[in-house]
Amino acid sequence: MEFICVxxxxxxxxxxxxxxxxxxxxxxxxxxAVVGEDVILPxxxxxxxxxxxxxxxxxxxxxxxxxxxxxxxxxxxxxxxLQSYRGRTEVFKDELQKGNTSLKLSRxxxxxxxxxxxxxxxxxxxxxITVDLRVKAVGSPPLITVDGFDVSGGLHLQCESKGWNPExxxxxxxxxxxxxxxxxxxxxxxxxxxxxKHMITVYNRDSKYHCRVKLRHxxxxxxxxxxxKMFNSLRSSVILISVGSVLGVIAVILIxxxxxxxxxxxQTEEERLQSEEERIKNERQTLSxxxxxxxxxxxxxxxxxxxxxxxxxxxxxxxxxxxxxRYEEQSRxxxxxxxxxxxxxxxxxxxxGNEGFTSGCFYYEVQVKGLSEWFVGVxxxxxxxxxxxxxxxxxxxxxxxxxxxxxxxxEDVPLPLSVKPQRVGVFVDYEEGRVSFYDVESMxxxxxxxxxxxxxxxxxxxxxxxxxxxxxxxxxxGKFCTFSFTGKMFNSWRISVVLISFAIIFSVITGIxxxxxxxxxxxxxxxxxxxxxRLKTEESRLKNECERLAMIEKGTVESLxxxxxxxxxxxxxxxxxxxxxxxxxxxxxxxRYEQQSGxxxxxxxxxxxxxxxxxxxxGNEGFTSVCFYYEVQVKGLSEWFVGVxxxxxxxxxxxxxxxxxxxxxxxxxxxxxxxxxxxxxPISVSVKPQRVGVFVDNDERRVSFYDVESMxxxxxxxDQSFKEKLHPIFWHSNSAPLIICDL
Length: 743
Known about the structure:
This protein is α+β, with helices and mostly antiparallel strands. 23% of the residues lie in helices and 33% in strands. The chain has five domains: 23-136, Immunoglobulin-like (Sandwich); 143-226, Sandwich (Immunoglobulin-like), CATH 2.60.40; 236-298 and 492-563, no CATH class; 309-473, Sandwich (Jelly Rolls), CATH 2.60.120.920; 575-740, Sandwich (Jelly Rolls).
């Protein structure tokens, strides 16, 4: 009895162990597909058990890192999929229950040809099969061209066809259908298929020749008829053209030598000036955006300034709205109380603003158009107002302006300005101890007082000695503007007519040129003098323009960098949001890519915080403030994206990193700079950025990217909708680290 029980248990164990086994089956013969069409690579399980809970992997045997499609844990996982297969593969998930693990490959390409492995794995068993795919492409009809004569009088005929796969058979046939031997043959495999080319030499006149290209049951053919007229006319053409060409070449050489000597210098100068003009034009386009950016950022600190008539010198008349002041030669009647008041300037032609400031930054603009002498700036509240005081920092005055026809700061510091400013902007950073002056139209930096000490209220101050008014402007936060910166077949008789006509015309023209030579000589000499003078004037103008642009660029770049960094925020990386292949440093300032995934806990796998397909990581900090800014070092990285994302963005599965999904990113991928992803927006970058700055302006609904070194604007998302917290986001696929910079 015991022996029978033991035997039954052994039989049951063997039955259970074999029940989980299966075989993977597929076609034994190669599959044939046509370029541009879809194809199904068959693969299935025998017996027809369910593959829903199994790992289904398709990969190429002839390529490295060759994942074509991966299905695992009830979903597609194509993070490491070959780039050329992206968006073109799928398994039939409804058929997995029946054991059908076939792969559908859409829009077949020639590069898809090769051996594919279908690998199926369960918890206890695995098996695979190889599927061989052959791709067929039908190319263009054969093209015949006449390629001249040989020394024995034969006519060279060349036939060419391209776009075939595999390599087709190309043959020449005579009028009787007899195959001719090709003298030169050439076959090259290109990205769009094979290009084949054969050449023969024929001597028979009034004969027909065929060029035929064939691939399996596909065949295309072109014919050409070689007439006696073609042979004779081509030979006559060669003789006439040779004679005419020799005569013409001699005359042209004589004329060309003279013209070359006289115009070489002029052409070189013209080319240099044109190149300089183009360079200046490109610099203007680049600077225009930087200028508008600086202007917009400065005006975010704009304050409403009105003039205090109680502080004004008696000869200065303040308007009722406190926005204008002008000089009157005759003094107003001054009350005894005003004469004794310490508030009023009695010798210096100055007036203060009503408003005082003790912290942060503030900015105002003044129109000085048409004024011959003026100074603007700020002064301490306790600064002396009586007597002939010096308006310098030692006495509590920080001013710049125009006097005696020269622009200068106190103590006769000259200010080299290439363009007379019409409107001047004054920017004060109380904490940094800095007072800066700008030409508002060009945003050219005029002068800055740096490392000053402010320990009391600062008031706008104005020195004026013109009857025309000095006018104060008031700006609310301005808009952040972006300036968008074959061959051929022809009849032989036509060839002859054209070539003979050309030879005759060429000879006539040669005679005319010789006749005009003497007349043109004197005219060229006369114009040369005036042209040299014009080139010298143009060169001087371009030199001055280059110097002006260089000065504007230097001041604008530094101003923009300083203003953006006032909105700098601290950013650290959130390791709980990072894809398993991304390793975050202990200080949260660096992230790098590792091929092997780290061990992921079950609770992390179920967490909605972690990216599982996209190689992304978020910043710990979320921001709802008006503006914020951070910088990232991307030096030496081949692929990366940086930007911001909404707090509620989807983090599971493949996600298109675009604004519609809550991602505003820009970066480098596949050797090309782009904004957004699927669809991507190409970005033109002249210099590869080493450090990228990201600036978010909630008021303007804008996300902007800058090359930090040159402060060149890379790209901006405009008119966006931000309805929740925004977190910095980083996409990274490099073993070298991406580094968040401290500011």
